[in-house]
């Protein structure tokens, strides 16, 4: 036939590797090659034709023994075999090149020094603006799925005060002095306290960590907590009862002639950057921030700082970490005057734990069962309505000092007059 007398008909093997032979009018032929093959007869395999490195790099091929592999030289900070990993570029865009290189170093060392990596996280997060930090943190409807006080259901958004803390993220305070709601103690016991159901963070919790992602603090309503404050972690699937006993302390004021000085308010000390009432811990952290500003040119993002103050980036992380080893604890610094608070309350806690009934047999869809197994219930109650008070008083009151001075002064003056009269009499007799 005519087709058998054409170039392609006579040489069907001309195009290699599955290429399709196409006759030309001049008696020659061309090959339509399959993907990854090129050149005149499709004899060359080019792995780079199947990828463009996602438009983020330049493709080249390398032959290893009998296998041809693709290599992408990624531009900017893209990574991966085909430059599909954009996470390094996102970190560079968010934090800058120097901070990204520091992140690489910390991540590379996290297997040998995991604590150092965790300590550095606030240095990364604080480079984001406040709105972004609040957005990526847990929202109140994720953290608190139900709240009751004295058995009465409440709206969590109304009764919880929100703030964003540098090291802890989004925090929610019940009974804060910053809200329009106050909750007075009318009775004690489990029926009169606060009960909160904390949501399950199942997709963001390590399988071997039995603690909840939430942290509970018990503190005075006008005082601010930090990541270093005493805290408690509820257990998913359990009811955690926190039974609180309180003690109050009243010390002699600043400027007193008796005992050790104390601070009545933040204005009594040189530096205090935490909102709320005075605490000795916040005072020392503020003093540390002043030292960080002097030594590193910025303040440590793990703690509160004045509005508008430059916060240290990851490039200053090593500088901040060197302050305590170099200078010692702030409580030993001469420039830190941080007395005890004049009036404060301390809370002692007894914590118990019991399993929540899963109700798996009562619900066909198992949603309630799953929630009960993964969510946490927390009850916080006062053990009783009384508490111990420690009141510091001067061993020698000022009034008693004045009275004693008058008595001793009168005695001394009287003694001197009698002696003077006797001396005059003796001199009169002798002379």
UniProtKB/TrEMBL annotation:
A molecular function (GO) term: ligand-gated sodium channel activity
GO (cellular component) term, any one: plasma membrane
| UniProt keyword annotation of Transmembrane present | yes
Q: Which UniProt keywords apply?
A: Disulfide bond, EGF-like domain, Glycoprotein, Ion channel, Ion transport, Membrane, Sodium, Sodium channel, Sodium transport, Transmembrane, Transmembrane helix, Transport
Instruction: Report if keyword Transmembrane helix is assigned.
Output: yes
Q: Where in the cell is it found?
A: Membrane
PROSITE patterns under this entry? EGF_1 (PS00022), EGF_3 (PS50026)
**InterPro entries reported in the protein's UniProt record:** EGF, ENaC
Cysteine pairings via disulfide bonds: 33-42, 74-83
Q: Spell out where the chain crosses the membrane.
A: 408-430
Among Pfam families, the record links this protein to: ASC, EGF
Q: How does it sit in the membrane?
A: Multi-pass membrane protein
Q: Where is the EGF-like domain?
A: 4-43, 44-84
Protein family: Belongs to the amiloride-sensitive sodium channel (TC 1.A.6) family.
Q: What is this protein called?
A: EGF-like domain-containing protein
């Amino acid at each position: 036939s005519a087709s058998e007398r054409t170039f392609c008909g006579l040489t069907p093997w001309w195009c290699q590797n599955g290429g399709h032979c196409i006759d030309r009018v001049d008696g020659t032929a061309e090959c339509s090659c399959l993907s990854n093959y090129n050149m005149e007869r499709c004899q060359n395999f080019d792995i780079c034709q199947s990828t463009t490195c996602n438009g983020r790099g330049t493709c080249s091929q390398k032959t290893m023994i009998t296998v041809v592999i693709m290599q992408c030289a990624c531009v900017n900070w893209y990574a991966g075999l085909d430059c599909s990993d954009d996470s390094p570029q996102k970190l560079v865009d968010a934090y800058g090149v120097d901070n990204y290189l520091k992140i690489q170093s910390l991540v590379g060392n996290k297997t040998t020094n995991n604590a150092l990596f965790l300590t550095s996280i606030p240095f990364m997060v604080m480079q984001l603006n406040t709105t972004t930090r609040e957005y990526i943190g847990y929202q109140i409807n994720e953290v608190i799925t139900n709240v009751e006080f004295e058995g009465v259901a409440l709206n969590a958004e109304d009764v919880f005060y929100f703030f964003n803390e540098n090291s802890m993220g989004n925090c929610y305070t019940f009974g804060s002095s910053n809200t329009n709601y106050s909750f007075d103690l009318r009775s004690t016991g489990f029926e009169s306290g606060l009960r909160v159901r904390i949501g399950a963070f199942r997709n963001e919790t390590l399988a071997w960590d039995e603690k909840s992602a939430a942290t509970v603090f018990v503190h005075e309503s006008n005082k601010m907590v930090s990541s270093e404050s005493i805290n408690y972690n509820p257990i998913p699937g359990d009811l955690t009862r926190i039974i609180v006993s309180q003690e109050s302390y009243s010390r002699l004021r600043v400027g007193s002639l008796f005992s050790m000085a104390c601070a009545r308010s933040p204005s009594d000390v040189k530096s205090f950057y935490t909102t709320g009432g005075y605490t000795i811990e916040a005072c020392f952290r503020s003093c540390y921030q002043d030292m960080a500003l002097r030594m590193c040119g910025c303040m440590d993002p793990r703690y509160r700082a004045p509005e508008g103050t430059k916060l240290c980036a990851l490039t200053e992380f090593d500088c901040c970490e060197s302050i305590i080893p170099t200078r010692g604890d702030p409580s030993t610094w001469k420039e830190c005057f941080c007395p005890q608070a004049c009036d404060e309350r301390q809370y002692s806690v007894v914590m118990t734990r019991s399993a929540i009934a899963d109700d798996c047999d009562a619900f066909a869809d198992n949603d309630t069962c799953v929630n009960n197994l993964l969510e946490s219930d927390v009850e916080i109650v006062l053990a009783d309505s009384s508490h111990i008070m420690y009141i510091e008083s001067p061993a020698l009151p000022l009034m008693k000092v004045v009275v004693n001075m008058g008595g001793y002064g009168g005695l001394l003056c009287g003694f001197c007059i009698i002696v003077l009269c006797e001396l005059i009499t003796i001199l009169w007799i002798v002379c």
